[in-house]
Amino acid sequence: MAAIGGLRRLCSIGLSAVSQNSGLKALRLCQYRAFGVNGALRQQPFDSPTEKPQFPGASADFVDHLEFIQPNVISGIPVYRVMDRQGQIINPSEDPQIPKEEVLNFYQKMTLLNTMDRILYESQRQGRISFYMTNYGEEGTHIGSAAALDPNDIVFGQYREAGVLMYRGFPLDLFMAQCYANADDLGKGRQMPVHYGSKDLNFVTISSPLATQIPQAAGAAYALKRENVNRAVICYFGEGAASEGDAHAGFNFAATLECPIIFFCRNNGYAISTPTNEQYRGDGIAARGPGYGMMSIRVDGNDVFAVYNATKEARRRAIAENQPFLIEAMTYRIGHHSTSDDSSAYRSVDEVNYWDKQDHPISRLRHYMTARGWWGEEEERAWRKQSRKLVMEAFERAERRLKPRPELLFSDVYQEIPSNLEKQKESLWRHLQQYKEHYPLDVYDK
Amino acid sequence: MAAVARFLVRASGSSKASITNVSNGVHSKVGVSLLRVSSGFNPHAKTQKRHAAHFTFQAEPAQTKYGPTQKMNLFQSVTSALDNTLASDPTAVIFGEDVAFGGVFRCTVGLRDKYGKDRVFNTPLCEQGIVGFGIGVAVAGATAIAEIQFADYIYPAFDQIVNEAAKYRYRSGNLFDCGNLTIRAPWGCVGHGSLYHSQSPEAFFAHCPGIKVVILYRAAVDQVPVEAYHIPLSEAEVLQEGSDVTMVAWGTQVHVIKEVAAMAQEKLGVSCEVIDLQTILPWDTETICKSVVKTGRLLISHEAPVTGGFAAEISSTVQEECFLNLEAPISRVCGYDTPFPHIFEPFYIPDKWKCFDAVKRMINY
Fold first, then answer.
1. Which reaction does it catalyse (chain B) (predicted)?
2. Cα–Cα nearest to A218, from A263, A159, A181
3. pTM of the full predicted structure?
């Protein structure tokens, strides 16, 4: 009996048929064993390396020596560049030949964003708005990619892509209205500053949770594919956000469900204080793309033309072939993470200065324009003055405006206000009647 | 024997939206449709001493107000609802893990063949991806019906549901919404599902403004209208009128309290009013409070653990609204504050004897 028990353990571990020493069971177990042996004898001899593996999970050849695949992080995916730091086109065949007017537009949008950043950053320092995040050093990634899109393409962003809205013509007044959360804010003053959104400009409202937009963007791209209207989706995120589970979800879904989407990663070296060597150990984000079966490229994010070219081609192919593309734009976060952060606590001023002074997307484009005689000191002075005036005027208008009506706290939770919320709204109203002097009602719309 | 209960969670949609055989929704529906399959109910099985069903199905009288009906169990009626939706809404898509071949609970059988693989498709195995993807589909204006294979596995998508789906409309000032999203998921105990095939997570979602949580039940086999029809959300249904005690439940537990009502009548001469809450959020306070004003006593029962369970919300609200009418403390008969156990399920669930005892104590208070 001990032998049968041993046999049973050998042959049918995990099977529920239990062996209480019945002769019938022993017989069956022996048959099972015999069958196993016959099966092994009938197997074709394993003859040569020419035989193909038949596993459903991958298409590959056998290999007869043990070798782990090594990541290539020393010599990573190269950084695509169109012009050098002096604004010189390196390879004429890659020159996008963008007409003068449009190049001037690029420059003006980048610098207008920069001017707005400076003024709003200062206004936060003075306590006039509660929070702000600048775009210093990443203006080229916004403008270059936005210019390569169709205005109907849907944009999902993280929070450091205000230049995309700027390029699409979002009025300064609405940027300010959102940051001030005044009565003109399309978002009805409900979100923190820089959480912009515009239905008309197909820019999906920003939310704070990182990377949540990535699988959402894949879903939106799938819906656009079914509509068959030649629209694509672009989804921006930082290299830190790419560590979230949602990034993995979004990349994998976009690939398996064949979505016309461009994943645009702004790799600026830091996620708040965390440098990239604490964020990942592979070759950045671009190297992950092929792992998902995704066409991928790395570009110089301070080269607006490189960004433009890559985005343009990715968009063309994403729509034509219904497949996702990954662009990793290498750049540097020149500003603090936000107004609640002092980046000198974790990185050197020299490091920041290098990027600000030696390799900035705005100065690079200016070199390019100057070399062509499209821009000079005079134009620069006049535009600085004008852009500052535009921003200051919008700023002052926004500051004077009242906040939205307090009852807007209750709408849009659902499409219709449910009865429990109606009651809560009435209860607040009654409360305010009695205690109005304790609330800042004078700064809110009536 | 098959399907019993159905649980839906929906996001920032209109309160008038419907749940049953159609979702031509222009509204956010994070629907979690829960299916109970009980393999331990075979009366002829002698060898296996698995605990018998803790409830009995009672088919409703056939309704004809919605046109011709057909006998369907719960999973067939879910398929029928999905079928009606795909037929009437060309943008609608169904996706999740293993839905293409018909689903592990057979809720999507035949739909891929009928409507095409671009409309009924498998996703990678990733719940946060499924819900995030569904939100995106809905944001782009199409109708997304996502499936989470078990309610127990909805937590990886908690962030997408709570921080994203629920807040999309509000945070954007109504510029964007994901009102066309429904999430369905099988829900509740099944007899042997243990920790991760038995959960009733509705209370986690009930604390989240912006979504709707719905649980419907149906007898094993019932007459179901073939054509699309609507059951309004946020409306409880009084299944049986009574005068002494109000009993509130949802999902399978409705079967339990229906039986308890019969026992209370027979053994104690107590008349129970039986209410199926149906929508957890936003819930129908009016129907419940009206009933308690009449009966003066309230028993709430759910499978989920008692602490922080949705019965606490109902109890507290009724106490506030009906203080002068209450003749006994409100009674909550719920799961214990433990994970859902495997071999101890018969002792864990708030079965009819536990509910019956609570009725007895309330009457004698």
1. N(6)-[(R)-lipoyl]-L-lysyl-[protein] + 3-methyl-2-oxobutanoate + H(+) = N(6)-[(R)-S(8)-2-methylpropanoyldihydrolipoyl]-L-lysyl-[protein] + CO2
2. A263
3. 0.89
Please state, in angstroms and rounded to a whole number, the distance separating the CA atoms of residues A106 and A203.
Answer: 19
How many CB atoms lie under 10 A from the CB of residue A410? 17
Residue type for position A386:
Q
> pLDDT category, A181, cuts 50, 70, 90?
very high
Positive or negative: CA dihedral B211, A193, A392, A377: negative
Contact with chain A for residue B317, Cβ under 8 A: no
Instruction: Note whether B100 contacts A: Cβ–Cβ < 8 A.
Output: no
| Spatial separation of the C-alpha atoms in residues A244 and A141, rounded to whole Å | 22
Contacts of B132 in chain A (CB under 8 A): 212, 214-216, 218-219, 246, 249-250
- What is the structure's pLDDT at B33? 40
The full DSSP string for B250-276 is -TTHHHHHHHHHHHIIIII---EEEEE
Distance (Å, whole) CA B351 – CA A49: 63
For chain B, which residues score pLDDT lower than 50? 1-5, 14-47
The closest of B289, B277, B270 to B330, measured between CA atoms, is B289
The predicted-structure confidence for A74-103, as pLDDT tens digits, reads as follows 899 999 999 999 999 999 999 999 999 999
Q: Measured between CB atoms, does B156 come within 8 Å of chain A?
A: yes
Facing B170 at nearest CB: one of A227, A246, A413: A413
Q: Which of A191, A207, A299 is closest to A246 using CA atoms?
A: A207
User: Token pair of A353, please?
Assistant: 């200065």
